[in-house]
Structures are given as C-alpha cells and as structure tokens.
Amino acid sequence: MRPEHARVLLTGATGGIGQAMARALVKAGASVLLAGRSPAALAAQCQALQAPDRVHWHAADMADTTDIASLARTAADWGCNVVVHGAGLPAFGPLESIDPAEMQRLLQVNLLAPMVLTQALLAYLRSQPQAQVICVGSVLGALGLPGYSVYGASKAGLRGFAQALRRELAGGPVKVQYLGPRSTRTGFNSAAAQAHAQATHTATDSPEVVAEALLQLLRSEAAERFLGTAEQVAVRLNGLASTLLDGAFASHRKHLSAQPSLSAHAPRA
C-alpha cells in the first residue's frame, strides 16, 4: 500500500521505535492514529508531528481487554486500514530471574493483545478494499538467544500468529505481515540488557532504521522482513537446522551466567 493511502493504527506509539515509526509514516504521507498508555505523552507527540489533519490519538493499556475493545471501535470509526502492532514489553535474564507476574503481563501485551485487537478489527478490515496488519516482532522470534527465553517466546508466538493468519486470510483484502528488528538503540532495553549486548558484540540499529523497514514492508506487502544481513542468514539456518547454531551463542550463555544480580527470583531449595 502506498503510505499516502494508509490510515495507520499504531500501538506502542510513544516508545522509541513507535515515535520513529510515527514520524516516518507522517512524513511519507500516511494518516496515523497513535495509541499508548499516557494521554499526556500522546497529546504532546501528536502536537510535535505537526499534522493535525492526519494525526490523532487514543489512550489504551494493551494489557486491558476493555481498553483494547475501545481502541478497536475508535480505529474503525476513524477509518483505519492498516494496523501496526508496535506495543511491547521487554524481559531479559536467566529464566529463573524473571517473576511469573512479569511473564504474564509480557505475554498479554506482546502476544495476546495483538491477537485480540486484530480479532476485534477483522470484520471491519475485511470490508475494506485493501488492508494490512503488521506485527512488529523481533529477530528473537525466529532465533532463540540465551537471556531472552520469555521475550523470544512472546515474539515467536506473534510470528506464528502472523504466519497462520496470513494463510487463513489469503486471497482476501487483508494482508498480514511480520517485521523482525534486531537490537535497537532505545530506552526499551534495561541497563543489564544493554551491557549484555555490548559484551557479546551484538549489532544494533537506530529506531529510524526500523521505521524505514516498516515503510518498505507497507509498500512491498511482503510476508515478513528481518533486519540485519547476518541475522537474516541466521534465521534461515535456524529454520533449517536449529541445533547447528547452538554453539554460536556460547559467549552469550557465559556472559549471562556471570551476572549474579539477575538471579533475584531464583527458586529456593
């Protein structure tokens, strides 16, 4: 779809990647409905984008199904024809360091919310001449890394949802896509995750690079796109024979195990 024809519902709009996506979409000519938890942040972002005729906002907590239903009604009334699932929560550390309540909220926001919001909008989107649902996941949704078992599981689930729904809706007006960024320089990651990335020489992108990839995916209507040449190769290898890559992440595993502060939630004997 050409950006100037797109009316985009963007969740997670106030995050680092979300802000870059909003700027890129508006600059390309799209209309955008910003969604996030903070009314004040959304109002300020809307004003900063300086396109009052094309930018609107709606506050919603993606962990709240009532808020999701309200957002879906607003998006349909507004004339949305593109949904970008950009909202997400991070989780980094050994599995035993992550609180179960944190796991539940992460899965609600990263996986269940996009599914519920898509379901709520699907009948409306099917009535449009052309529509797109873009799930913003992660390369970790196709390539499991030590320290990201919970976060990676949420993004792997999102990729599976996008893939299955794409096939379910094939031949109709709604295209379903998956965008897999690699590590991105925003405030999304914790200090521990950033230190881990530096120690393991993990390649990172700016949020603007991810935003440009979103625009390319919108225009091309391709099924999925992963960022980073090395990551693209690794994703393909992992899909063919995942055990071949197990040894490639030894440094990640060793660095992770050397961080005693991350074991705060370890079960006691």
TrEMBL record:
Protein name in the entry: SDR family oxidoreductase
Domain Ketoreductase: 6-183
Database matches in Gene3D superfamilies: NAD(P)-binding Rossmann-like Domain (3.40.50.720)
CDD domains in the cross-refs: SDR_c (cd05233)
Organism: Aquincola tertiaricarbonis
Domain of life: Bacteria
Coiled coil: none
Pfam family for this entry, one: adh_short
This protein's record includes keyword Isomerase: no
Family: Belongs to the short-chain dehydrogenases/reductases (SDR) family.
NCBIfam families: PRK09072.1
